[in-house]
């Protein structure tokens, strides 16, 4: 095997170069994965354009990309889960396993999480990554490389539906038909939701939402959704959408804030109090990959439909800015 690989490295704001770097050495319980597809995410674009996300600041050169899939190319001495040649979807964060949050099963809240493409941990816009064997999940051949990579955003949708306790017959409102809204629609239907209303301001995305299972769609420039959802999955990050959505949720409803936008929200407090509305944020996900892979493998969720653009490792900058140039872009994938 070669000793070096190509990696797209962010050196500073809007400054990315492809460099040769050593192929990572897998630890005893790690597998070395040859990366076959990496989805680009709003957070990657944010790091590229601003050099930071809140408290996470890019101080040293960083490889972005956390939505990855690949093929096991080598295994550490104690690996028992995977053989060389196994196709895998990668869960990009490995927690400490021993803190109070990890022990409570909430490993997404582990303060010592090491997460791809979050400084100082490198991500997957490169040819090889080393991953803990328990965070590489075998995928069947019916799931494409790109769909395996997009099990990461799908996990966000699965987590949102779990937090909102979406189940058979639930009436759901989803605000925002970007990649996360579009996986949330499909997951909500797969979980049995009888009604999934989706709002956005982009007609092409609303069309796609309808094709992927939304029972109705509303362009909020033209009107407001009617009805009284039991669950709001806020996936737009737009304050107005969140506030209007919260107001529309009925008694004992649940509000799940997934989208990231501004940091403050004017909360319609009497509506929340008088109706005993539960409101929660979400931070990444925990224990979602088996469900995500099953949904993709069964066809209940179509991830390939989300891919609108493909780029090579030399074109990561174009991949990260595709959404800004083309309003019909949904998901850009990098194929190293
Ligand atoms: Zn992502
Ligand atoms: Zn922990």
From TrEMBL:
Cofactor(s) the record lists: Zn(2+)
Keyword annotations of the record: Metal-binding, Oxidoreductase, Zinc
Cross-referenced InterPro entries: ADH-like_C, ADH-like_N, ADH_Zn_CS, ER, GroES-like_sf, NAD(P)-bd_dom_sf, SDH-like
CDD domains for this protein: sorbitol_DH (cd05285)
Pfam family, one: ADH_N
Domain named Enoyl reductase (ER): residues: 12-334
Protein family per UniProt: Belongs to the zinc-containing alcohol dehydrogenase family.
PANTHER family membership: SORBITOL DEHYDROGENASE
Name assigned to this protein: NAD(P)-dependent alcohol dehydrogenase
Organism: Saccharopolyspora taberi
């Amino acid at each position: 095997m070669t000793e070096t690989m190509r990696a797209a490295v962010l050196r500073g704001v809007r400054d990315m170069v492809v460099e040769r770097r050593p192929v990572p050495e897998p630890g005893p319980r790690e597998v070395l994965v040859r990366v076959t597809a990496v989805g680009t995410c709003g957070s990657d674009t944010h790091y590229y354009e601003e050099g930071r996300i809140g408290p996470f600041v890019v101080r040293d050169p960083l490889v972005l990309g956390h939505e990855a899939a690949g093929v096991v190319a080598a295994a550490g001495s104690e690996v028992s889960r995977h053989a060389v040649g196994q196709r895998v979807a990668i869960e990009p964060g490995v927690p400490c396993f021993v803190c109070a949050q990890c022990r409570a099963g909430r490993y997404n809240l582990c303060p010592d999480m090491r997460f791809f493409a979050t400084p100082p941990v490198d991500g997957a816009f490169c040819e090889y990554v080393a991953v803990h064997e328990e965070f590489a999940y075998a995928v069947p051949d019916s799931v494409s490389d790109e769909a395996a990579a997009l099990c990461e955003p799908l996990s966000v949708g699965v987590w949102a539906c779990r937090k909102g306790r979406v189940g058979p017959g639930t009436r759901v409102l989803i605000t925002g038909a970007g990649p996360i809204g579009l996986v949330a629609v499909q997951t909500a239907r797969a979980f049995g939701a009888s009604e999934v209303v989706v709002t956005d301001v982009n007609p092409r995305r609303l069309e796609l939402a309808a094709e992927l299972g939304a029972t109705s769609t509303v362009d909020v420039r033209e009107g407001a959704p009617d009805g009284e959802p039991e669950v709001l999955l806020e996936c737009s990050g737009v304050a107005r959408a969140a506030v209007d959505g919260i107001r529309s949720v009925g008694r004992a409803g649940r509000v799940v804030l997934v989208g990231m936008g501004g940091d403050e929200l004017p909360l319609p407090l009497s509506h929340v109090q008088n109706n005993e509305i539960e409101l929660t944020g979400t931070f990444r996900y925990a224990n979602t990959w088996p469900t995500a892979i099953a949904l993709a493998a069964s066809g209940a969720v179509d991830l390939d439909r989300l891919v609108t653009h493909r780029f090579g490792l030399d074109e990561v900058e174009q991949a990260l800015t595709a959404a800004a140039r083309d309003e019909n872009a949904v998901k850009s994938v990098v194929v190293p």
